[in-house]
Amino acid sequence: MILIAVEYPLAPEHKYPIPIEEAFSETNYVLNNLEKYDLNIDLNRIVLTGDSAGANIATVLSNKFRFINENLPMLQVLINPPTQYFNMLLPSMIKYASIENFMPRSKMILWHLGIGHVKNIQEDFLIKNYHTLLIDEHFREKLKSYTDVNLIPEGYRNGFGYYESYDKLKNLVYPQKIIDHEKNLDENFKIALKQLFNIDVSPGLADDELLKKQPKTFMIISEQDTRKDEGLIYAQRLSNNGVQVDIALYDNVFHTSFFYPEETNHPMRGDIVSFLKKNL
Question: Looking at the DSSP assignment, which residues form a beta bridge with residue 218?
Answer without folding.
Answer: 77, 246
